[in-house]
Write a structure and sequence with these properties.
Layout (H helix, E strand, L loop, with lengths): L4 E2 L22 H14 L2 H5 L8 H9 L7 H8 L3 H7 L1 H8 L8 E4 L8 E5 L5 E5 L6 E4 H18 L4 H24 L3 H6 L4 H9 L8 H9 L3 H8 E3 L5 E3 L6 E3 L2 H15 L4 H7 L2 E9 L10 E8 L4 E8 L22 H12 L8 E5 L4 E7 L5 E2 L7 H19 L5 H8 L3 H31 L11
Antiparallel strand pairs: 1-9, 2-5, 3-4, 3-14, 6-7, 8-9, 9-10, 10-11, 11-13, 12-13
Helix pairs in contact: 1-17, 5-7, 7-8, 7-16, 7-18, 8-16, 8-17, 8-18
Protein name: DUF2252 domain-containing protein
InterPro entries: DUF2252
Pfam families: DUF2252 (PF10009)
Length: 479
């Protein structure tokens, strides 16, 4: 498969179809804050504290989700989900979304991550090759109520804290500090900073860590991770993931079923779709990519929740012999708990899901991968988004954190979540609603503790189905 597909340089602009009008509002900050204050009368904090159990079949829901996934990969996906309650939680985001749609909410819309658990923050490179730390997963991103993100963050703090063996009272302290940090940062964003200052806030590791160090000790693991992240570029990907075939061509190594070469038909389809993708990137990136040709393509599955979706790695070689590796990920419909209605008043049925993901990512992150783009496969109505693979991407190993590291890390994640939400003008309403009230902290922490118990119940049901073979699937290779 060494036909050299020369990349085009089409730069036609696309019309943004993901509607952001719900977060655009023509009111002053003081008016937005007042709206938030008034919302407390309609949805008092005490209502947010009440967890309402939802009648649903966990295993049936997972089976619904997996109908759209590659069946060959399901046994390995199940193994990853079964690793721990937190692994199960992070891989079944649609289940919590379904439950959240049945809980009391302030329903103040902002652009949300949709999956803001504590493991979805990490290091990555800015276009200027600076190391950043921020939210780094946006498959479930959408317009939604701010509290969906903070609740998911809190539940993940509980589950990881339990995994670390922390006592319950210490975990509760970390939860409370996370909510208080969220409140404090929103207050700073709207009381002390202009719209431009909020937009220009830097998550560059050097400046960000220095600023945070004034009031907090930083996780001790960060320095080691920073050194590791800087070395993770496309050339290192080539060293790790490729080999020379018997004809002397550089190709990806296979590691079935996780990494396999695609069929000739799929290779041609992806090569053609790259041309569509080029129409969604900026002109400078399109011109850059015109110097590269496709050398190889594999299906390469990653993650937990997304494991089993159609994900590909594309190896590009430039006219000077350098390399670039792009990752193509299937963009499923947000809240993909098929068979259960997870729509909200902010749900949109029309937009391309790849476009939804990169639009929300660019709003939530202070700087994003310049190679972000998307395309739609009209033949099978599947949507995909494209990004650079690795490129200084690195995550913190939560299992190696001590108590102090974990507490500080949780606060930093809450800080970044608040910064991300603050990019939506409607976050001024959120600021007015949450204020600095201790009642809100108590309510959200109480709800999260109750929901963590629900996660444990769901995990036990999943494990029972996993152990008894109910979730076993026949192999059906679909590269």
């Amino acid at each position: 498969m060494q036909n050299k597909q020369i990349l085009g340089s089409s730069t036609d602009a696309t019309t943004l179809r993901y509607d952001l009008s719900e977060i655009r509002i023509s009111k002053t900050i003081s008016e937005l804050i007042e709206i938030g204050h008034n919302r407390r009368d309609k949805v008092p904090f005490e209502r947010l504290a009440k967890f309402t159990p939802v009648d649903r079949d966990v295993v049936a829901g997972i089976e619904h989700v997996e109908r759209k996934l590659i069946s060959e990969l399901l046994p390995l996906r199940h193994k990853r989900l079964a690793a721990s309650p937190f692994s199960f939680f992070r891989g079944t985001d649609e289940l919590m979304a379904y439950d959240l749609s049945h809980q009391a909410s302030s329903n103040i819309p902002v652009v949300i991550s949709g999956d803001a658990h504590i493991g979805n923050f990490g290091f990555y490179a800015s276009p200027e090759r600076k190391l950043l730390f921020d939210l780094n997963d946006f498959d479930e991103s959408t317009i939604g109520s701010w509290d969906w993100d903070i609740r998911r963050l809190l539940v993940s703090i509980i589950l990881v804290g339990e995994q670390l063996g922390l006592p319950h009272d210490k975990i509760s302290e970390i939860e409370k500090a996370a909510v208080e940090t969220y409140q404090e940062i929103l207050s700073q964003c709207f009381d002390e900073h202009s719209a431009l200052e909020r937009y220009y806030f830097s998550t560059e590791v050097e400046s960000f860590l220095k600023a945070e160090a004034k009031g907090n000790s930083l996780p001790k693991l960060w320095e080691k991770i920073r050194r590791s992240a800087v070395s993770r570029d496309s050339e290192k990907v080539v060293k790790k993931f490729t080999t020379m075939d018997d004809r002397g061509h550089l190709v990806f190594k296979e590691n079935p079923p996780k990494t396999v070469h695609v069929s000739q038909k799929r290779y041609a389809q992806i090569a053609a779709h790259i041309q569509k993708y080029l129409q969604t990137v900026s002109p400078d990136v399109a011109v850059l990519l015109s110097q590269f040709h496709i050398s190889d393509i594999v299906r390469h599955s990653v993650g937990v929740g997304s494991f089993g979706t159609r994900c590909y790695l594309v190896l590009f070689t430039a006219i000077d012999g350098s390399h670039l590796v792009l990752q193509i990920k299937e963009a499923l419909q947000t809240r993909r708990f098929q068979g259960f209605d997870v729509t909200t008043q902010y749900s949109q049925s029309g937009p391309d899901n790849g476009e939804r993901i990169i639009t929300c990512q660019q709003v939530l992150q202070r700087a994003s991968d310049p190679f972000l783009g998307f395309y739609h496969n009209d033949d099978n109505n599947r949507s995909f988004y494209v990004r650079q693979f690795w490129d200084m991407k690195e995550s913190v190993n939560l299992e190696k954190m001590d108590e102090d590291d974990f507490a500080n890390y949780a606060k930093i994640c809450a800080l970044l979540l608040a910064r991300g939400h603050a990019q939506s003008p409607t976050a001024g309403i959120v600021h007015g609603y949450v204020g600095k009230k201790k009642k809100l902290v108590k309510s959200l922490v109480g709800w999260a503790n109750d929901y963590a118990d629900q996660v444990h119940k769901d995990y036990r049901l999943f494990k029972e189905a996993f152990d008894t073979g109910r979730l076993a699937k026949e192999e059906n290779i679909d590269a």
